[in-house]
Amino acid sequence: MKSNARMIGCISALLLLLTLGSMFTLQAPLHLARASPSILIVPGQYPTIQAAINAASPGDTVLVSSGTYHENLVVTKSLNLIGASPSNTIIDASGSGFGINITATKAVYVSGFTIRNTDVYNSGIIIADSSNVTISGNVVQASVQTNGTYIVNSNSLTVKRNTFTGNLYGISVLRGFGNLIQGNNATGNGSGDIYIAESSGNRIVNNTIRASVSGLMLWNQAVGNVVARNLIANNTSEGIFLWNSISAGNLFLENRIEFNRNAAMDTAGVNIDNSTLNRFYHNIFRNNSIPVFGVLNQGLTTNKWDNTTGLPLRTDPKIMFVDTNGNSLWDYNETVVYDTDNNGAYDLADTVIASLNGIPPIIGATLNTDPSIKFTDANNDNVWERGEPVVYDSNSNNVFDPGEAAIAAVGGNYWGDYRGLDNGDHGFTGDGIGDTLIPTPCPNGGRPCSVSGPAGVDWYPLMTPSRPSGLNITISAKPLGGYPPLQITFTSSTKDGIAPYSYRWNFGDGLLSPQQNTTHTYSTKGDYIATLTVTDASSATGSNEIPITILKPVGNLAIQVLDEATKPILGANVSLLVTPPGQQKLSMLTNNLGSTTFAGMAAGSYLVQASSQGYQSTTKNVTVAPGQTTSEKLVLTKVAAPNNFPWALVGAVVAAAIGSTALLLVLVKKRTRPRPTKKPT
Fold first, then answer.
1. Nearest partner of 97 among 119, 128, 113, 70, judged by Cα
2. pLDDT tens sequence across 309-333
């Protein structure tokens, strides 16, 4: 018996260990580490590219020799896919399906292919629900009825140095952030070269965008994107089309927007329809049928056309001027300097901020102050530094308004058809800023500025095109977005200048840093553009920008209500009794699976109650994590039947009956007891 009991105990212990082992296996899958990545060669080792992809382990490289491969490739793992050359390594979809489909993965690199001949429903390259994918050095010619590359629900991708031609849209991005589209040639695509929608914090830089219907399209809440140093030309409807993006905050900087025109002469360099709070400055507009057109007047007046208007102003007592007419007020063309040693006289230690025709004052000239001379304090240190705009606040509201004099470092855009003069009416004569009237696009009102006006938008046009800084500034940020509070690491490098360099980070949320490399934490949802300004030893200044997307911290809460037998309860009421600050308290009924889902809920702690007729209500504390679906089960217990029947009376009656029966049995037993038999004597 003892041996049997011992054996049973051992078997039970073994089963317990196996059960626990299976539980840990489900929670923490075992990944076998590989000594080093492998290189798989097509067709030398594998007859098809897909066969090599299937055989590859994460991190492997698939090298494809020259040839034409009639395949539809699916990539769902991290790997490098490299062709010999796009001129002779061709992925041909044979008119059926996509070229390459990259789904639900990360760290994929694709280079060296021509992708062509998809069907009318599938793109040349599809990237869905993925991150850190790089598409570089390819030619994509999918179909005249579909996208060259279609990016959906994907973040932190890089699409660079590719050629997109002969597609319906060259590159399309839907619901993504932090993607870099750089150095591509998107030319001759039917409807548009680059299309961005419902996306934020993307960088579209140094691309050639031309010869389509619309060049660059930012649609339907495309916000916080940076569009810089692109050539946007030869499109027949518009170079840039902004649509349905309120408070968009997109930045358009140093782009060449030119030769967008058609036979009807109704092509716009920029077409704005219901898109506000965008910033345009230092762009070149020339030889477009219509420089810029606003479908509604506010499409122009609610966007900014220079780098300074609308910004707050501060005073620095060392900003002084040479009062040539002795009226104690600054007048246009009077020299403005920074009195470094604060001695009230100009000397070689002082900095000339602005002067007529660039001529400095004589040594020893008396300097005066005018409280209306103010500056925009980019680094929030209450001290003017070279490169910070200096203006004349004529209405003393501490905001730089259109029409107030631009003394230094203020600039709008270059308009090839501007006929104004640089005569000092809004600043200095010969400072390179147009002064005589509100300039192009429509100095006389009406079209082409908008259907009914207003008469122009850019108060500070450039007389000559702006030139990029001689400093080569490279910046990066990791991560490019996420949920608050989010700490981001910013790094930078500078070359082609004279060391040492000084640095000024403006993170776009009002905070700054003087360090070359730094970290910064964003605590509030929003779309930010972080800017690094660098000044070298010769006082040459340059800058670069990177967008950051801080998502609203929301998640989903899925609740299933069951009975004690784990059967779903239909129509149970699920209520949020306690919610995070700002989150509405909601109630929903369960479906036939006993389930209901609260979508887009603020991250944080909740107290959830489930109730249903015939069951006892129950509550549970749950936590919703941002970007995730939190699933919880609540079990309800049936309520006992109500106690209304007079059980006490029944009990008394039964007890009396039992007592009577017992007495009767005793009496019967006495009556039926046999009498003793008398023995014969």
1. 119
2. 999 999 999 999 999 999 999 999 9
